[in-house]
Amino acid sequence: MASVQDLKRRVRSVRNTRKITKAMELVASARLRRAQTRIEAMRPYAETMRELIAGVGRASASVRGLPLLQQRDEVKTVAVIALTGDRGLAGPFNAQIIRRAFALERQLRGEGKEVRFIAVGKKGRSTFAFRHYETAGEYTGFTDRPAYADAQAIAHRVAELYVESEIDSALLVYNAFVSPLVQNVTEQELLPISADILETDEQERRDDAMRGDFIFEPEPEEILARLLPVYLETQVYRALLESAASEQGARMTAMRNASKNAGELIDALTLEMNRARQAEITQEILEVVAGAEASA
Question: Where, residue-wise, is CATH 1.10.287.80 in the chain?
Answer without folding.
Answer: 4-26+253-288
